[in-house]
Amino acid sequence: MTLTAKVPTPNASRYLQQLCKHWSHKFDVTFDAEQGVIPFPMGPIRMQAEPEALVVTIEPKADADVEKFKQVVADHLDRFAFREAPLTFDWQ
Questions:
Q1: Burial of 3 (0-12, 13-18, 19+ CB in 10 A)
Q2: Distance (Å, rounded) from C-alpha 87 to C-alpha 10?
Q3: In this structure, are residues 7 and 54 in contact, taking their beta carbons and an 8 Å threshold?
Q4: For the chain, first and last CA: distance in Å?
Q5: Is residue 31 within 8 Å of residue 14, measured between CB atoms?
Q6: pLDDT of 72-90, one tens digit each?
Q7: pLDDT at res. 78
Q8: Which of 30, 51, 85, 89 is the most exposed place for a label (fewest CB within 10 A)?
Q9: What's residue 18's pLDDT?
Q10: In angstroms, what CA-CA distances link 4 with 16, 36, 47, 83, 87?
Q11: What's the rounded Cα separation, in Å, for the pair 50 and 63?
């Protein structure tokens, strides 16, 4: 299963980098200004910064609580985007 949300924000690159740095002390995170991958225990989180949106893709493992996984990602991004929060996540 793969779920993707295109989150409208002009600060996609900044939030991507903040989230990756935040989790880099726990996981082997790879990222640059335009994309990032976090090997989260529930499944990988992939992010792509676009000019007006952050594209977030999660790939929950078979035993993952998908709703909790989506909420963890959204909650963390909302913390970094406190001036814009809550961000809009339309998971597909």
A1: middle
A2: 11
A3: yes
A4: 11
A5: no
A6: 999 999 999 999 999 999 9
A7: 95
A8: 51
A9: 96
A10: 15, 14, 9, 23, 14
A11: 31
- Do you find a cis peptide bond into 86, omega within 30 degrees of 0? yes
Q: pTM, whole model, 2 decimals?
A: 0.94
CA separation for the pair 69, 10 (Å, rounded): 24
Q: Kindly provide the residue ranges of all beta strands, DSSP E only, lying in 1-92, ordered along the sequence.
A: 3-8, 30-31, 35-40, 43-50, 53-58
| Packing angle of the helix pair 12-23, 66-80 (nearest 10 deg) | 110
**Token pair in block for residue 45:** 């989180």
